[in-house]
Design a protein that fits this description.
It contains ten helices and no strands. It has about 300 residues and is an all-alpha fold. It has one domain (about 5-295). The longest helix has about 40 residues, at about 250-285. The two termini are about 40 Å apart.
């Protein structure tokens, strides 16, 4: 059995968004533009609707209404970015196209309700087991009332989360099957990842932690006024040295800076994670050490 080179794949995944800027821009530029413009427009609308003397209820309502719309736009855009990024890292012919939204993207979207379905099914099974164990150890009165004992349900909740996490990691090769073969091959993904769970988990955790660290460093370099003054809401705590009231132009400029930085960090994290999924898939399928990209796709200094 070929072992997945955890450290190399993690390092290559973190370099992938930077070393393949041109290829990613060509393949996912249009999709990224739709995602940024769509989410940005919703956030800007929410920002201006809650400015000034908005009450807490008005702010809560605006956020409540905007979150589902942002989620839909985000998942659609992410499916397009995932497909494009995986096709670039796996050197698929479609990786050279500038835009696509078809069966592959819809299958990536299908992964979202599929994951929720797995979680719901696992939760139901664990809840039933917890209820049975509670009744066996404490009788029917232990399920409700003053004698209720939530111990088994707490253990079941933790067990359900760990089991669901295990399933998701085992099914990571599914991303590669969708991008390359246009198949929602759950069984093939499961069989392909057999015996590789811990190395796959280690790779994903390394990339995720490193991307989070990079995000934290970038955010820490931004002045606090950019975070706390992008919305002029009554009751917002003042920042030392910041004027009590700032011109609208200054607020808009700070908001744009904040949005651009956050978008760049988010896009980098997304591409780095999907690069890890693609390189893991390549290593499992070929049984060889994967390369991050062809030299032709890399930036030339």
């Amino acid at each position: 059995m070929t072992k997945i080179p955890v450290a190399q794949i993690a390092a290559d995944s973190l370099k992938f968004p930077i070393m393949n800027v041109r290829a990613l821009a060509r393949r996912t530029g249009a999709a990224l533009g739709i995602l940024v413009i769509g989410v940005g427009a919703i956030i800007m609308t929410t920002f201006f609707s809650v400015g000034g003397e908005s009450s807490e209820s008005e702010i809560a309502t605006a956020i409540f209404l905007s979150v589902p719309v942002i989620a839909v736009v985000f998942f659609v855009g992410q499916s397009m970015l995932a497909n494009g990024a995986l096709q670039v890292v796996l050197d698929h012919p479609l990786g050279k196209t500038w835009f696509s939204f078809g069966e592959r993207e819809l299958r990536f979207l299908l992964f979202v309700p599929f994951s929720f379905g797995l979680l719901s099914a696992a939760g139901l099974v664990f809840a039933i087991v917890a209820a049975l164990l509670t009744m066996i150890t404490g009788g029917s009165s232990a399920l409700s009332g003053d004698d209720a004992n939530p111990l088994w349900f707490v253990i079941a909740g933790v067990g359900c989360f760990l089991f669901f996490f295990y399933l998701i990691v085992r099914l990571l090769p599914l991303y590669g099957f969708i991008a390359i073969e246009n198949r929602f091959a759950v069984v093939d993904a499961w069989n392909l990842s057999k015996g590789h769970f811990w190395r796959m988990l280690g790779t994903v955790l390394l990339v995720g932690l490193a991307a989070s660290l990079i995000s934290g460093v970038v955010n820490s370099a931004m002045p606090p006024t950019v975070f706390l003054s992008i919305m002029d809401v009554e009751g917002l705590p003042d920042v030392p040295g910041m004027p009590a009231e700032q011109p609208m132009a200054v607020q808009i400029l700070q908001f744009l800076i904040f949005a651009c930085v956050q978008t760049a960090v988010l896009v980098y994290s997304i591409f780095a994670n999907f690069a890890a999924y693609g390189l893991i898939f390549k290593a499992l399928r070929e049984g060889t050490t994967p390369e991050v990209a062809a030299p032709a796709n890399r930036l030339v200094d």
